[in-house]
Amino acid sequence: MSMEKRREPRGNKERETLRDSSFRRLDFKPLQETIEVEKEDLKTEEIVEELSEIEKDVLDIAKEILKLKRYDTEFEIISESQIQKYPIIEKLYAKCIAKLSYRKGYSKEEIFLSIRGLEEKNWIVTNERRTKLEILTNKKLVSILEFIKENPGVHARDEKIETHVGITRTPFLKHVMTLERFDLIRSKKIGKTLHYFLSEVPEDYDKFKVIFLNPLIPKLLEEIFKDEEIKVSKMGENLEIYSGTILYHIKKLKDLNLLKTAKNKSGNKIFLVNIELLKTYNEFFDEPDFSQLLKGL
């Protein structure tokens, strides 16, 4: 009988090698999916960059606590002694102490100050069950923010909302209320209409932006730039607009100090446009762009 060691079939060796390989993963994910997750993590880190480490830790716990519907989400954090007035904050405070005091070495005072800081900076807000981080990583809400950024002064009845954002007036109003609570946008009532702007946009130019949403206004100014002695009737004829409408808009432009009337050396009535105001306006808003009209002045 031969003493030669029995040779194992080649297939068995390959299977054994594969089984022992450190590259064999039962939870293997497609490469593209892994890249997307890494991008999301990077985006999250950029969003919370302004927060301290303890605030990030507290915010992470707040994300879960705010969703507990047995607690009312109305709160106002002023002092540590008031925590018991607001059960949801009391729960958040207790959970943070339990999770972070031993593991991270944070004191109760540091945890309280972090909770209050998150409220002051609108990372957690009353009557909302989401944190600002969840808002800023929500695709629909981010698309609305981008839309308002590109269309400052937009109002809820604007047809562009449905075209560009893909929602109708009612859900748009619901979403902007949420964004306003987190101080990401602000609203301004001009006349009878609410107009929306990013919070960072200076309020001084709200009325100018709103009046320029009317496509007739830049055209009217262009007519005046072409001929400062132009008659109202001629403007109406050129723009195919009733003269009374032209007079109405001229009055509004005068009220905003964008336009005034004077007399030239010949004694003829002329219109004068506030050029400096238009230049300053374009420093904050791209549309309408008055650079071509102002060129050479």
What do you see in this structure?
With 297 residues, the protein is mainly α. It has 3 domains: 50-123, no CATH class; 138-201, Arc Repressor Mutant, subunit A; 209-294, Winged helix-like DNA-binding domain superfamily/Winged helix DNA-binding domain (Arc Repressor Mutant, subunit A). 54% of the residues lie in helices and 7% in strands. The protein contains 15 helices and 4 strands. It has helices at 10-20, 31-47, 53-65, 87-104, 108-120, 132-136, 139-150, 160-165, 169-181, 206-212, 216-226, 232-239, 243-255, 275-284, 291-294; strands spanning 185-190, 193-198, 259-263, 269-273. The chain has a two-stranded antiparallel ribbon with strand order 1-2. Strands 3-4 form a two-stranded antiparallel ribbon. Strand 3 and strand 4 form a beta hairpin. The chain is elongated, with a radius of gyration of 31 Å. The chain starts with 9 loop residues before the first helix and ends with a helix.
